[in-house]
Amino acid sequence: MSQITIHAAKTHLSRLIQRACDGEEIVIAKGKTPMVKLVPVDAPKPKRQFGALKGQIKLDDAFFDPLPDEELDAWEGK
Prior knowledge:
Blueprint: E1 2-5, H1 6-11, H2 13-21, E2 26-30, E3 33-38, H3 69-75
Parallel strand pairs: 1-2
Antiparallel strand pairs: 2-3
């Protein structure tokens, strides 16, 4: 996390915006008192990749068995 004064932020705003977009946390301070945090408006969401966990998860046949009545009741809030 970088803390920058308001004066320095005004002077280097475009650089600070790029650093924030690259993932760095930028805090703008008045003197030594933190005031605001500079963050991107919409961070890009990682795209889903079909089969990304292939070979990392193993399910046995019991996974597909029906749940016991007590557990079904718990899921349904009974």
